[in-house]
Description:
Radius of gyration: 28 Å
CATH class of the largest domain: Mainly Alpha
Order of helices and strands: HEEHHHHHHHH
Number of strands: 2
Strand order of the largest sheet: 1-2
Structural class: mainly alpha
Amino acid sequence: MSQGEGGGRPRVYTSADQLQQDIDGYFARLETTAREIVDNKGRVQIIKQPAYWTRLLLQVGLDRTTAVPYIEGVYDDEVNKYSAVLARARQLCECETAEGAMSGVYNERMSSLVLSVHHGMAERQEIVHSMAQLDSQSPPMMIEDMARLEARKTAQITGQSEDDLYLKYLDHFRSKYQFKSPERAVIAASYRVIEQDP
């Protein structure tokens, strides 16, 4: 071990290869601790100890504080890329946790907590209207809702103005869905005129 920057505590690693070997050893130990269980539906599943970021750091001789210079690339040079090694290890832990939660192997709530705390993911709830919900509304409102939803989705993907897309989708849906009763057609036409006025 060499002495740290400014004469402080000695660095835990002086070689990124040694860090990679220790990380590989951590994941290999997880494989050897795997065990088979039978779930409540009679399926056999192989359960291994989850790969947690904090546990990985502790197993390789680091902790959240001493790992920071390695993660931020303070000790990186032309030969030793500690930040890349740790970034890949962190992503492996993240993937393992997410896949375990999705497959039902790991507790979903705990996995969600681990992903948000250690990997910066956040839960986001979106309300998506189904066509059945929209069909129960009056036709002018249904068309407006469909246009607003499509405009919002397209704007998120393309980065275009949601308002411009809304008007395009509104015209598209109005031309696509013709109303049979004359009163509803008049109501829909009046909405179009009002919305196009500045």
